[in-house]
Structures are given as structure tokens and as C-alpha cells.
Amino acid sequence: MTSVLNTAAADNLTHPVLNVTGKVISSIVTLKFYSQGHSGRLGKIGIGIDDRQNPGRKHSRTSRCLRRRGADVGTHKLTDIINRVHENVKYLPGTALPSNVVANPDLRAAVKDATILVFNLPHQFIDKTLEQMKGHHLPYARAVSCVKGVEVANGRVTLFSELIMEQLGIYCGSLSGANIAPEVAAEEFCETTIGYSPPPMDLDAKDELSPDNRHRVPDDYPCVDERLLRRLFERPYFHVQVVADVAGVALCGALKNIVALAAGFVAGKGWGESSKAAIIRIGMMEMIRFGRFWFPDSVNQKTFTEESAGVADLIASCSAGRNFRSAKHSVEKGVSVDELEQSELNGQKLQGTSTTRAVCDFLSTHGKLDDFPLFNAVNRILDGKVSVDELPKLLR
């Protein structure tokens, strides 16, 4: 999922806020609904409100918080450049941002009064971001997480949609799918999957609080459901499917990066498409197995095999994703993936390496590592304990 948004809005829309300070720490999109009947569309590279397709209709406020560290371009701050030329010249050059996108590094101001929060940031920075947000968001806000990865602590694996719910006390869904950033920016046809099951208090609950103390959306605000999410995210070239399987969508987004590293390793060795196909097949089976083991009551296997978040994203990630490319180049250059990340990714973070290590630590704690030979092999290659040449033997 790309990290720069294009918001095409009506002239009467309050200016959205695009908060940027350098290397990606957090990227949060916020939407404030003023009344029922609002409509939105996914812009070139993310959520946007588009009145051009709905003339005369009053819309929502859109804010973007994208916080970065050390992203000055020469003597100029990236925030100032975005405000002046309406282009992220460092991380997505050549893609125009509309004039109503304003760069502002104030995270708390961006989330204030927002009804919907969309999280899109490297998972390494989610804890700090959530800590800064506490007490500054609406108690009845709803969220969608595009964060890829899992958090492992005390022998427990936590999805980032779950972590957002735990830390902020708001309901959170997940978004993932086969949509490579430059291709979305070029408005090429692609799909995504949103895992979102409206909590009971957003449907027909009479009480003000749910049993887990999450607040009901007020009656004068639109219910965040499949219909609204599709209107917010969908564009003619960007198709959206909404499913109830929040955990499955989140797991697909996390685990596919482990498999993409393996695909990159074999590509770096010059092995052909048959080798990559074997990696994809084995990887898909291990992704499904992980879901069955640890989320048996919530994960639907069809999310992995029939949705964009599953098999489609796995194929795309194993062909053109950042983790695939980095693993491939690391083998070709004879350096570790960690070294390549430091030297060539312009301050951006790989999600696959840290996810691999966290998942394998978790599996080892529970004595299940042997049930996931591909995940284990990728982890050992990352740590320099085995070579890519040994991969076929390790997968027997």
C-alpha cells in the first residue's frame, strides 16, 4: 500500500492536512463527517474526497498525517516543499498532489475530531504513534489499519488492528491487497480487500457503550459499514471488496512479506519461474496454517485463496514488491538484506525482515517452528545461518 495520498476535494472542503517530517514514522489519514450522505473516493494514491463525481454534495474533512524524520531535501524541509510544489519529491517524485493537501507535522491536530482514522505506517513505529494519539481522538472514532506485520510479546501474537483497538479503545478493521504503489499512482487497474465487521453498537445497540467500552457512533453520523468504506476507498480503477474477516486480511498483509523475501532470494540466484511458483505455493500453505493455528475462530481460509489480500497480493509481492526486490538485490550483490536496507532504501523500512524474526520467535516459543519450514528457512537466511542454495533441502 502506498504512503502518499491524493485528495481531490470540492472548493468548500476544509483543507486536508498532510503531515510530513522525514523518514516514515507514521502516516494517518483522518476523515471528519459532518452529516449523513457524504461520499468519498480513493484518489490517485489513497483516500480522497472527490466532489467532481458528486457535484453539489457536501463532504467530509480529510486530513493526512505523515510524519518523517530526516527528510530534508538539501536545505529545505520536505514539509515546506510539499506545501509549495504539491509533490513529494523525495518519496514519490513525478506524482502531483492537489493544492488542498497541506503538510503539517502535528499528529494530535490531525486526529482531533476525526471520525475515521486510516493507519498506514511501518509497524516499527506504531507503538510510539498510538502513545502520542491517546486522549486526542474521538472516543467513537473508527479505524482501518494498513499496517503490515504482527507484534509478538510474552508468547502472544497481536495483529496491529487488535493493537490499535487495545491502545485507543476504538474499533479497527484491516486493509490489504495487490496494489503496488507506483501502479496505483499511475491509476492502473488493481484491487484491495478491507476486513471490517461493524461492531454491534454501530448497528442496533441501544446502549451508549459496548461490553468492551467502545463507544457507539452518534446517531447523526453515518455508520461505518461496507457501503461507506467502498464509497470512501473505491475508484474506477481501484476495486474494493469488504469482508468480515479482519484477522485474515491483517495476517495476509503481514505474512506475505516473509514469502516475498524467499521469492526474492531464489530470483537473486537466477532460478526461474518454477522455483518462484513453488515458493508461492508453499508460502500460501504456511500462511493458511498460521491462521488456523492461532486465529481458528476468526480467520476464513477463503480470504487467503479468493481475495486480493490473499493470493493476489502474494503473487504481486513475490514479483514486484519491495521485500522481493530487496532480497533479490541482496543475493546478487552478496550482502545481507539488512545491509541493503540501510544503504539503498532511502530511509524506508522493510516489513518482511522484522516480521520474519517476530513470527519465528513466536513459533519457536510454542514449539511449532518445524511446521513452518519456509518461514524458518527465510529467518535462517536473514541471520546468515544457511545459504539460499540450501533452500530446496530445507523445504523437503
Automatic annotation (TrEMBL):
Residues 245-391 form the Glycerol-3-phosphate dehydrogenase NAD-dependent C-terminal domain. PROSITE patterns: NAD_G3PDH (PS00957). PANTHER family: GLYCEROL-3-PHOSPHATE DEHYDROGENASE, GLYCEROL-3-PHOSPHATE DEHYDROGENASE [NAD(+)]. Pfam families: NAD_Gly3P_dh_C (PF07479), NAD_Gly3P_dh_N (PF01210). GO terms for biological process: carbohydrate metabolic process; glycerol-3-phosphate catabolic process. One of its GO terms (cellular component) is cytosol. This is Glycerol-3-phosphate dehydrogenase [NAD(+)]. It comes from Aspergillus fumigatus (strain CBS 144.89 / FGSC A1163 / CEA10). Residues 76-197 form the Glycerol-3-phosphate dehydrogenase NAD-dependent N-terminal domain. GO terms for molecular function: glycerol-3-phosphate dehydrogenase (NAD+) activity; NAD binding; protein homodimerization activity. It catalyses: sn-glycerol 3-phosphate + NAD(+) = dihydroxyacetone phosphate + NADH + H(+). InterPro entries: 6-PGluconate_DH-like_C_sf, 6PGD_dom2, G3P_DH_NAD-dep, G3P_DH_NAD-dep_C, G3P_DH_NAD-dep_euk, G3P_DH_NAD-dep_N, NAD(P)-bd_dom_sf. Its EC number is 1.1.1.8. Belongs to the NAD-dependent glycerol-3-phosphate dehydrogenase family. It is an enzyme of class 1 (oxidoreductase). Keywords: NAD, Oxidoreductase.
